[in-house]
Amino acid sequence: MERLNYEVLEKSGYPGYILKDAPEKVLQFGEGNFLRAFVDYWFDVANEKAGWNGKCVLVQPIPAGLAGMINEQEGLYTLYLRGRENGEKVDRKRVISCVSRALNPYEESGYEAMMELARSADLEYVVSNTTEAGIVYDPACGPDDRPASSFPGKLTQVLLERYNAGGSGLVILSCELIDNNGKELLRCVDQYIDQWKLPEGFRNYVNNDCTFCSTLVDRIVPGRIRDPKEVERLEAENGYSDPLLDVGEVFGVWNIEGPAWLEEKLPFKKAGVNCIVVPDVTPYKKRKVRILNGAHTGFVLGAYLAGFDIVRDCMQNDTVRGFMNKMLYEEVIPTLPLDKDDLTAFAAAVEDRFNNPFVNHELMSISLNSTSKWRARNLPSLEEYVKKEGKLPKCLVTGFASYLAFYSCDVQELNEKGLVCRRPAGNEYVCSDDRDILEFYYEHRNDSAAALAHAVMTDECMWGTDLTAIPGFEAAAVETLEKIRTEGVMKAYADCLD
């Protein structure tokens, strides 16, 4: 079967939106599944819905990548957005046509093409997702490297080329999963300006003419379809083969920290997509961590002990779903500093996302490093609820007791893989966490509920504080842990709903 390109797509009879030629307005560092299912999707929709009329040029951030394959397909690839939306199953196909080409800057021609684009009057944006390790200052990089090995080094080279050509400032949108990603990227560029002894005029250009934005991205991107039978079926339906085919969940939100004028400059508001410019992304990060991530950590450990294996099945059980929703709507949302309608809509989308019929999200994969996750995601909600309401949040307390139960359920051994426990259904499972935490639970494997809870809650290395100082928390945790050990998690969850 023929590979996807513009000619093959036309022969296939594809009825969707396609834009073949347009000015190259985006230089994108990263060509992997996430950016192609997220950022490039937004720009593609902006072409259709807002008349943006722009193309993205993708740059391999490392020597090995997809540039050759992308160019072979003339920038085209198929994207499926799958999941649930407002309770309904969604499976949307779109051929993305906003990508013009891809560059490998580790080849001489690719490096020269990157610099040519840097000088272009059409260029407006730089976008990046070079993984969490990508925004790093490497002093080994030099200004004459072709290219600099680090991403901030490459960006400094691009901006210097543009500055020397008299080009206007660019908007830089960082999508790496680190806090203050835009600020960290600018800090690295400034370090190269110092190290390479670049002109003060260039420093002023970078810091004042260019706009470095921290952003918060949220979309689960499984990427490839691994079932060969489904790949064969889709190829037959589409009339072409596409090794660049990408899959993401239907939900997506992009929060961009930037000046007010940026919202009008970007094409996303006009296109009607879920992307907003805000003065500070911190509250939105807190929303994601406390609601989305906190929901996972709050219910999955107990749900696993109750016999569930994947997230979707939990959402189809009234008790587990009810427990999660009561925790979110009545205990977490009241502690967050955003508009309540916004928070409620985000929480409502969580249930749809967790009930995705296309993703088998295993509870055990979510259970990794649950101690640090509980500390970062759930403990702040519990502490702020107590401070605000003057009482304990029952679901969050039950979630903490479930965490204790998960790490202490019929402990078998401690080996190189982790702490081996056995759940009530009879099968063994492995708790994966920092080694000192696993050793702690192994040492306390025979403790009563009261002894274990006290030992864990007074360990300030785990929590950064003494949890027994929260009025009534220790007694409530002990009572709930005893209930889980004697009557099961489902009884504990159900009691929260009374």
CA(first)-CA(last) distance: 59 Å
- Give a count of the beta strands, DSSP E runs of length 2 or more: 14
Looking across the biggest beta sheet, what order are the strands in? 5-2-1-6-7-8-10-11
For the largest beta-sheet, the strand count, sense and barrel status come to: 8 strands, mixed
Low-confidence stretches: none
Helix content: 40-55%
Quaternary structure type: single chain
Structure classification: alpha/beta
Q: Rough shape?
A: globular
Rg, Å, rounded = 25 Å
Q: What CATH architecture label of the largest domain applies?
A: 3-Layer(aba) Sandwich
How many domains make up the 3D coordinates?
Answer: 2
Mean pLDDT rating:
97
CATH homologous superfamily of the largest domain, by name?
Answer: NAD(P)-binding Rossmann-like Domain
What is the CATH topology descriptor of the largest domain?
Rossmann fold
The total count of helices amounts to 23
CATH class of the largest domain: Alpha Beta
